[in-house]
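User: Second chain of the day. Same drill as before.
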Amino acid sequence: MSWTRRRLQALVTWAILVAWLVLYAIALANADPLPTVDVAVFYLVVPPLLWVIAVRLVLREVWLVLRPRWSRAGSGISALDAPGRFLAIAAAVLPKHRREWGTAMIAELAEVQGRSARWRFALSSVRATLLLRPAGGWPVLAVVAGTAVAATTAAGPVVGRAVPGLRLFAMIFTAVVGAMVVAVIARSRRQRLPAPAATVLVTGGVAASIAAIVVFLRHEPTAVRYLPPTAAGYLAVVLAGCLWIALASPRALGPNRLAPHLGAAAALVFAAWFLIVIRTDGIEPPLPVVLVLGPLLALTPIAVLVVPAFLAGRIGRSLRSGLQEVAWTLAGVMPLTYAIWLPEGLRRHAIDGRSLDGEVIAPVGANLTEALVFCLGILPVVAVTLGVIGAAFGAHSARTTENGVPSPT
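Assistant: Same format as last time:
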């Protein structure tokens, strides 16, 4: 391990610890009532420990991947002047089918003499990249953009009349999805679903989440006060982001074809576990059943979030493949658990007037807040942390097996 990486890892570690201590102190100062000692110690130690492990593992994998590339490309990069580097960066972000054009511009720049002339050529080339004809053509792009604007404008009033309180959600969700469609048409000649089965699962989860909140507010119209504008906007952006991963998976996630299926399977198993835990709450099964199901239910969520990411990283032989699986797990598990929480919250409140966790008596609308905080707040943080750890260990294991010796640390 080089001294530079050691310093970076130490800096990130201390940054995480200090930030968590500050946030934790603020949370304790505003807690009412204060948590018990064991709970306080658990949340003081476990979350930052997992975050530190995850970040240090990611830094190690990224360093091991990029260091050889930097070494190979070092001489070429250092040979470029400022206009050349500027044009090279612009060409690197072009869609795949246009990169040959960017390479040609870089080659032509080599023939331009004079610093001012080189800057003029680089700037004009970058400006030309912004004006390149979209893959679908300008007329098609204009029609799609116009349709997206019209749909966004119409979605608010239409949904607002049917379900008061969802006007802002409908507008933001439609706007984000419309922007996604415009971006896809502008950058790609032909769009293929990255993984049809996984795409169906995630799309179904998003549709189920929207249906669940519509049913909830139709059943309890006064609960809309528990969905303020900021929460509605956040919910819309997250659900639209899940659709983005499912329907137009970004290139940065990677090309591994197994990762989406592993992520979808993990999300489905986690959702099933989530429903079983909710439905078995308060039930006292026989002791043999408790001895079997207790450890199984306790370990299932950890295994579901770690093992698929490990397999994706190991089979794909890269951290990137493991992170791709984590992204698909998030895209599936967030809408699925949200779609489960709301109807189960209604059912539980009808039984004894308690919230879904069964600890306190609360208005039924509190389920909107609790579902948002857990399914779209706490759960993603936990899933990403455990998934990153699994993905990093999988990539490390694959590299160790391939080389026949332990990887450098």
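Residues 253-403 form one domain.

User: Great, on to the next one.
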